[in-house]
Amino acid sequence: MALTEPTSAKIEAQIAALTAQLNDAELQQRYREETRRNVARCERKFGIPSERIHEAIDAGTLEETLEVVEWIFDYNLLCRAGER
């Protein structure tokens, strides 16, 4: 199977679709709510507040799995949005 370069038209269509998502307030609200739920779920599952993720990893009490990395990412998004 040969890899092909995306055409300029395809790239422009992808950019337009992503821009439309940025301007969709309802979609953005749903994404924020899902992100909050994911962070809360991880806090319950691992029994630590998000503020202590890195401390727990450094102490060896929390393994840095893909799930934990996604938790860190979600938590950082909420912090940057001023929601934590």
Q: Tell me the series of helices and strands, N- to C-terminal.
A: HHHH
Main beta-sheet strand count, sense and barrel state = none
Mean pLDDT over the residues: 91
Looking at the chains present, what oligomeric state does this protein adopt?
single chain
Shape: elongated
Helix content: over 70%
Overview of the molecule:
By secondary structure, this protein is an all-alpha fold. The chain contains 4 helices and no strands. The chain starts with 7 loop residues before the first helix and ends with a helix.
Blueprint (SSEs and pairs):
Layout: H1 8-22, H2 25-46, H3 53-59, H4 66-80
Helix pairs in contact: 2-4
List its salient traits.
single chain; 84 residues; mainly alpha; 70% helix; elongated
Task: Compose a concise summary of this entry.
With about 80 residues, the protein is mostly helical. Helix content is about 70%, strand content about 0%. The protein is built from 4 helices and no strands.
